[in-house]
Amino acid sequence: MEIERDPPCPGPVRVMSVGVWGLDLEQPGSQDLILPNGGTPAGTASPASSSSLLNRLQLDDDMDGETRDLFVTVDDPKKHVCTMETYITYRITTKSTRVEFDLPEYSVRRRYQDFDWLRNKLEESQPTHLIPPLPEKFVVKGVVDRFSEEFVETRRKALDKFLKRITDHPVLSFNEHFNVFLTAKDLNAHKKQGMALLTRVGESVKHVAGGYKLRNRPLEFAAIGEYLDTFALKLGTIDRIAQRIIKEEIEYLVELREYGPVYSTWSALEAELAEPLEGVSACIGNCSTALEELTDDMTEDFLPVLREYILYSDSMKSVLKKRDQVQAEYEAKLEAVALRKEERPKVPADVEKCQDRMECFNADLKADMERWQNNKRQDFRQLLMGMADKNIQYYEKCLLAWESIIPLLQEKQEAK
Amino acid sequence: MEQAAPDPERLLQPAPLEPLSHPDAGLESMVGEETKGARDEGPGDGTMTENNFSLKKIEISVSEAEKRTGRNAMNMQETYTAYLIETRSVEHSDGQSVLTDSLWRRYSEFELLRNYLLVYYPHIVVPPLPEKRAEFVWHKLSADNMDPDFVERRRIGLENFLLRVASHPILCRDKIFYLFLTQEGNWKETVNETGFQLKRVADRLYGVYKVHGNYGRVFSEWSAIEKEMGDGLQSAGHHMDVYAASIDDILEDEEHYADQLKEYLFYAEALRAVCRKHELTQYDLETAAQDLAAKKQQCEELATGTVRTFSLKGMTTKLFGQETPEQREARIKMLEEQIKEGEQQLKSKNLEGREFVKNAWADIERFKEQKNHDLKEALISYAVMQISMCKKGIQVWTNAKECFSKM
User: Fold this and answer.
1) Which ipTM value was assigned to this complex?
2) Choosing among B52, B211, B228, B384, which should be mutated to test the A contact, i.e. which has the most A CBs within 10 A?
3) Residues from chain B contacting residue A23 (CB–CB below 8 Å)
4) Which B residues 214-253 touch A at CB under 8 Å?
5) If you measure CA to CA, which chain A residue comes closest to B234?
6) Which is nearest to B17 in space by CA: B367, B349, B368?
7) pTM above 0.95, yes or no
8) What backbone torsions phi and psi does residue B189 show, to the nearest 5 degrees?
9) Cβ(B14)–Cβ(B286) below 8 Å
10) What pLDDT, in 10s, does the model give residues B226-235?
11) Where are the alpha helices (DSSP H) in B305-324?
């Protein structure tokens, strides 16, 4: 396989020819994309006028490690067998000094559908914010047992991550639904009440009419959109590559498991070489086990996180679309006013509301994007370092196995 | 060397070989190397040990014969007879026997086993095998190895052979003998299989490494849209390319190992060639002994006037009249000369045979030393190669990890 590559430096990407081992990744050729920067929004946005906007910015500054006042953990999965169904619950432990919590500590049990409920409520009540994704609801491959230890553990980690992301968010962590989720003894009762705890912004955004055409998408949001498109694409490719590697590794493992025993059979036919050959057989067996551990780890720890981020970027795209709609409505109303040709056009109250709405949305989204970028960077740094680590550990185990039989191979067999 | 009736067994057996005075006095120890525990004398009955543990009384039977067709070494179709060997272990308490092994062998495999035993135990009289070819029977004009009578006689002969080996205190402990009874497939096949499996493993490993090359490309593309993560991703991608490329050198080394295994198999061929030569020498010997016996028989009959063997000369004499005493004397004298000649020939062939075995034994010893040494070297360099591969893997992933840490 021929690979052309510039010396490592960021820059345009060249299309490389791939042999049979190159995957059909995606359409050849990719454009340079404008990187989202932290500049001030250009375009039609006017200076922020809402006080709540300032509040939000202040809250941002407070959220660093030292002033953390909320800790949430997901653990202790348990299986429940009822007449109607069987399901798993997880223990949610909350520790907080915030006034919003009556007690300093809570411990409740929740199941997946409770998490799903929470996420929907958050999306409804905080539409201007990026809500973290949940692990997939349904098991994609029917082969996986949803009560197996590995599956439950993978899911637990993902749910823990979900809650921690909300906990770290300066706005979402104060959401009433979140509070109820963490504290209520009987969540179902609360669900039934159908709490209308939408925030002011949530309420207003909820009723944004669609169908307005957007004139000028601010450059920075256009850039975010394009970034997310390419990002999701690349992640999808990495997911396919990782799956393919695991598949190849498993097939390699199958052959290894046949290869080792052949040395055992051979050893039975030898005299002086019996021990060395048996040693080689055992060594290959150890390498096989190490490889199996590697493939298990990659399946359980690496792939799910990739998929989470793909889901994340999908949900972020829908938030961007909503933002576009809010802006479009504002623009349309503004235009309608301008067309009325009054002497001193007074901006009516509802247009001001629209503007307010839009500017809040923009600010929230911008802040969340920055936070998301930082977290993404840390998450991927950890994920990829983890992948490298697992491979290093695999090779270290194999190295140990082979090094330990060298003395056995060199040993002089005693004359009998 | 008076022979009464032609005894098939005796005909095939040359004069018993005297123990060779081998230059290396450790003959017994060399034998013992190949068969663990051969030094200890076991009970003389059909008791077997395998790797020196679990003494069990066993029964061996060649219970069935079956016609088979297959392809020979020249890829030509051939018909042969396969014999079913059943091994039973006898429980001491109630005398009940349990079938422990059963497999099919053909005559040539028995020959191989016997030749192996002859070479590895030159000081032991190895039981004979039934005749190789059907005896010339007067009412048939050609030897027919498919003749049911012949097959039946052969089946019994093969069974006797196995029983005798099993009851010999030293031979019964031989590992190759044990495997002959219990393991279908042989040593050569096993070493061959190692080579085949190695190839399959290598192909799969190739795939694993090469797919990693795709990371290089996608990391590079991804790095283009990232601000802070870009450098780390791009340089990590470069290491993934290095990783993918490294498999080519690794597999070249593995091919070298596969070649060494093949060479090792040539040893087996050499051993086989020696056995074949030995077999031919034996056959020569048998023929000479047979001739001699026949002549002696004739001589005796002439001298005593009794006719026991069928001979054309005898027949014509009967039909066309007796010969004169002078003629008979002349014939006896001629035969006596021939017998003397024949005995000389047999003696020299015997000597030749023993000389050959002695040299062959020396050759085989040398081969064995060499083979064990070579194979050990091959295994060591294989392990060293694996170690090098692991170290390279650790290096590459450590480099990649460092790049990721800078993201």
Assistant:
1) 0.79
2) B211
3) 211, 214
4) 214-218, 220-232, 234-238, 241, 244
5) A8
6) B349
7) no
8) -60, -40
9) yes
10) 999 999 999 9
11) 312-320
